[in-house]
Design brief:
- The chain is built from 2 helices and 4 strands.
- The chain has 75 residues and is of the alpha+beta class.
- The longest helix has 21 residues.
- It has one domain.
- It has a two-stranded antiparallel sheet with strand order 1-2. A two-stranded antiparallel sheet has the order 3-4.
Length: 75
């Protein structure tokens, strides 16, 4: 009975080690995803866009050239 338990333990340990070393290394997440984008609001339509894609005039942001030409919407 002790031999059977011993062999079961050896086989279980071998399977555990095989699975541990067989698995592919975990890919590290992209560094660009660590810092979130700054979102700004279009002064004309209110759409939120990343500041890297928005057009800035003074303290106002616009989502497109067309909205920049139309100017801020009155509320």
């Amino acid at each position: 009975m002790v031999r059977l338990l011993f062999w079961i333990a050896v086989i279980a340990a071998a399977i555990w080690l095989w699975r541990k070393f067989k698995s592919a290394p975990v890919a590290k997440p992209d560094k660009s995803l660590d810092s979130p984008l700054k979102m700004v609001r279009c002064a004309h339509c209110g759409l939120h866009v990343p500041d890297t894609q928005a057009i800035r005039t003074g303290s106002l942001w616009y989502c497109s050239q067309k909205h920049l030409e139309q100017g801020p919407r009155e509320r």
